[in-house]
UniProtKB/TrEMBL annotation:
Coiled coil regions in record: none
Protein name: At2g35280-like TPR domain-containing protein
Domain At2g35280-like TPR: 72-176
Originating organism: Vitis vinifera (Grape)
Pfam families (UniProt xref): TPR_27
Amino acid sequence: MSNLSSTMKFKKTKRNSHGSIVESLPSDLLIEVLTRVASSSFTDLFNAKLSCRNFLEASKDTFVMKNISIEKFPTIPWWQVKDEVSSFLKACKESGNPEVLYRQGMMEFFSWKKVESGEEYLKRAMEMGHMEASYVYGIILLCKGGESNEEQGMKLLNAVKKSRKLGECRKRTRAFTLSMWIRNPIVKCQELTTCHAKTCGRRNNGGIGGKRGWPWIEDDEDKDVEEVNYCEACIWDDEVSLFCKLFR
């Protein structure tokens, strides 16, 4: 009996010690820890929330919600989602979670025909460093035309190319568009650039879709586009054309 009492006392002391350690940590540190957990796994965050009250309270912080990973959530929940899931995603959006903003922007712009608000969501996600949002928003700016839009659009796309994630952005964007109803197909509003630069490799390639096709985009690999000696305008012109094919 005495041994059993000693064991129970030890376990109780151990639990109290664990609880007191967590309770002694400053809230800023708890939030930072949970943010790192949330950015890699929603499941791990959920388990942490169940472990103690302090983690539960810290998990409600805006910074945690802003950085939480929602990769395991379906891109577009066609079925009726539970109230708690809907509330969770709404909280993520209000906290400025870039992935949620990107998904909202894609749905509003391409499916719900809410062009202005959809573009704004994509822009917000882009400003927070979301790569697919930067890619799509850059394409949209090029399609809108105008010197300012084209300059900003090429700047965004160049940043994506520099990150070596251009191929990944294409694949993920394509997967997203295949999962939703397209009611607002993006259309390039200006004519394709006619390049007269003597040094541009496009002149010797038969133009867009010529003999060599799109050597840097056909296989979705992030190849060094400079090796084909195309000018910047031609490179992104072809990229826009490829993107628009998703909606035909």
